[in-house]
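ERR on first pass: missing label on line 2. Operator R.T. fixed the label and resubmitted. Corrected input:
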Amino acid sequence: MDRIEELKILKKEYEEIQVPAGGLAQMQAAIDRAKSDRAKSDRSSFDGASKAGIAGECKWQRSRSKAKKRMSPWGLGVAAAAAFMILLPNVSPAAAYAMSNVPILGDIIDVVTFREYHEESDDSRYIADVKIPQLTMAEVGSQLPTSQKTLDMINGHIENICQNLIDGFQASMEYAEGYESLVIDYKVFPQSNRLLTVKLITYIGAGSGVEEDYYYSIDLESGELIQFEDLFEADSDYNEKISENIKQQMRQQMDESDSRIYWIDGRGGDPSWEFDEISQDAAFYFNDDECLVISFNEGEVAPMFMGCVEFEIPRSVTDEILKGVYK
Amino acid sequence: MKKNRELLIEQILIDNYEQYYKLAYSHIHVEADALDVVQEGAYKAILRCDSLKEEKYAQTWVYRIMLNEVYDFLRKKNGAERQLAQLPDAEGETLGIAERLSLREAIENLSEDERKLVHLRFFEDYKLEEIANILDENLSTVKSRLYRTLRKLKISI
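pass 2 clean. output:
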């Protein structure tokens, strides 16, 4: 094909690019935001208070001094390009969950908001909205031998993750070159089959947003932290059964919609990106219907734009492989 | 006065939204990122609308902001460790993907300045004078650079 033909085709393709339905409304929101920011900066220049520095409100319920610096992977890298829209419905997964003080099954374990951290720079380019959960033993009648240890471990883990994210956020705020939003929240899953699962939701918006979630499940009888593999009978081929079911669901979704893409059947580009089988420490919870749900973080089994993806595994698959106590 | 300027830019943004989105998407190939980039461009355009000198250049001025936003994004993305996956192009199959990719790849491998020229001239159909305006270059520079770029791409017009 000669170059002129090629050019025509590229041009045609260019002209046929479809504008997503909500796009204009999103831009309108950005415009409105810019207008109000402009109005704000007018006001503050009258006050003589519009120094370039960031004087955000910073409220800690408990102060922290440990400062392991870690730049958030997207904070300064991919970019400062365009994060201010983070709370639009198509991007923000996090805003929907708000919870504190949820009493748990027979009040054995409470999940409470341990710390909150809100910060917004004067120009609203940096916004943090953080709620950190903590798991505690309810006061009476709950003498699970190992639970306190498990809870300490989970709490430590959560705190570490959150602290790193907050440090990263504060570091890029000092750097003040772009936009960044940090949202941390959590969710407690409904009780079923002896497990308590807490999901820690973290979201960093800078350029495009990245959500990363962590799941913690405790066996309420033994007080132990339960990993994915602990759910199943040892001699069942749970791994293959679940992996196959997930692949099936992926294929079906891709058949139904061009906008769904999963890295299977050679779509991953690089073989190492392909989803082959589920790992022993996969993230999971049981949903309202008491079905097992497997969750993948962004970029784990699909391109980042797909967000975090979840697969509900039908009972027909899990019934024969789950340990009796978790059915 | 100030409000009028804001409204002018807002109207331009709304009227040309499709053009900006296509510009972003054709470079970035990821819907969510293209949307973000246009939003960011719109935000900046409104925020800085006082720095526009002459209103008759408003449209060019906004386009330039969008163009810069797109290239900023590409630069940052390419510098980042984590690359977004390239989306397979559904239409490609029927049109002989191998051959067509070669021009596309050639264009994507151009320097920023060259790629902008190709985009403005062939995809947006801007006249050379308009291109010179958008890029803030003089006309003869634009002409000779475009000519060189076309030779590089082995396009003879």
